[in-house]
Amino acid sequence: MMSRTIVVGDVHGCYDELLDLLNKVNFGARDRVVCVGDLVAKGEKSREVLELFMSDKRFSAVLGNHDLALRRRWNGEDIGLTSAQREAHKELKVDKERYGIYLNAQPFMIDLGAHLVVHAGLRPNVPLYSQTTDDLTELRTLGPDRESDAGTPWYELYDGKKTILFGHWVASKPRHAPKAIGLDTGCVYGGRLTAYILETGEFVSVPARRVYDPS
After folding, report:
1. Domains of the chain: residue spans and CATH
2. Is the pLDDT of residue 1 over 70?
3. pTM value?
4. Beta bridge mates, 117
């Protein structure tokens, strides 16, 4: 059986659904999982998710905005946390030094050849080395507020060489653009956890077991 690269949408502590998804794709010893970020916060099992990604070399992830907020707080920055981030901090603080070391080592981009994984998005016509941390972890639209849902989605104008695989912006089904695919289908809100298999172009998803964050 060939090895596969399985790119997974925002997990948000939904550990049980992640296991359901891996079981559905028959995750094998030669396969690889890459998450588009936000491993933690909002769901109930951020710790279990981090332990899995830390203990198995087949698993990797880019930093999402929630992961980054905890990393910055643990690194001593005086930043405010959302209620979901405070809950994740509470859950993880028993071993925050070890989790902090892991998050400090995580990249903002993972290059998969013809594909590039980021959490939120890229500014069209801006070189990769000039993309900002805020855009990589928070970008939705190209207006004055990068986090707003109103405006022109970044991926409608993006026309880079690589197809971007991203999360962050929840939709009921994967977002499609000529050079971008969005994989956040809202598992933590009672939607689905979705993966995209690079080698086959196949989407696979599993339903949330329940609503973890009703917001």
Report:
1. 5-107+170-207 (3.60.21.10)
2. no
3. 0.96
4. 110, 165
